[in-house]
Design goal:
This protein is of the alpha+beta class. It is built from 5 helices and 14 strands. Helix content is 37%, strand content 20%. The protein is extended.
């Protein structure tokens, strides 16, 4: 199906609506969707860079105002004023190109423990928190790794018990099979993004 002829219908409670055309957006899971969205959002990145409000890294004097993962946007700034400048840029871009950001689902994570900052996205004040989850990884403003390790252990136990509930009995399996199950189904869940845990503690 091409984007020119895209259509959809709604099914609810056993009823089906008439077909209606889709004139904007990209289809979830389609091959071209990620590329089309990248083209759509690229101008925002350029505009954020032009504000000079991002974090400056002393490697060729890089200015990094944002990290984007699909449609998740993380803004980086060394000061509340700089962060507000980035948010104003995002709001202007969103209004121009009919992109909606939900300020109530956003948060400010201040690494200097200053939780009394007044940051807004449009007219919505963004809450200041001590931790947040980004791309499945817990990030805290105190640079401690204990909570990440604790959460990983919980995931490991949950995954292991879900296998037991599904009827997997380790006593009835060979050591090789048990090891394969452990390595392929249990450990990956617990160790997701563990490569950056040590780096996050030094952030």
């Amino acid at each position: 199906m091409s984007y020119k002829s895209a259509s959809a219908h709604v099914q609810y409670n056993g009823l089906t609506s008439d077909n209606f055309s889709i004139s904007q957006g990209v289809g979830q899971g389609r091959v071209l969707s990620s590329w089309l969205f990248s083209l759509y959002i690229n101008d925002l990145i350029l505009q954020l860079i032009s504000t000079n409000c991002g974090i400056r890294i002393r490697i060729g004097y890089l200015n990094i105002p944002a990290i984007l993962l699909a449609d998740d946007t993380t803004l980086l700034s060394a000061s509340p004023k700089g962060l507000q400048g980035l948010l104003d840029c995002v709001q202007t871009y969103a209004c121009k190109w009919r992109l909606k950001y939900n300020g109530t689902k956003s948060c400010v994570l201040a690494f200097n423990n200053n939780t009394d900052v007044d940051i807004k996205l449009g007219n919505t004040k963004i809450a200041c928190k001590t931790d947040t989850i980004y791309a499945g990884t817990l990030i805290t403003n105190n640079n401690k790794t204990f909570e990440r390790t604790k959460n990983a252990a919980k995931k490991l136990k949950k995954n292991l018990h879900s296998l037991y509930s599904a009827g997997v009995n380790p006593k009835g399996l060979t050591p090789i099979t048990n090891t394969l199950i452990w390595k392929r189904f249990v450990l990956p869940t617990a160790l997701y993004s563990c490569e950056v845990w040590g780096q996050l503690s030094k952030f």
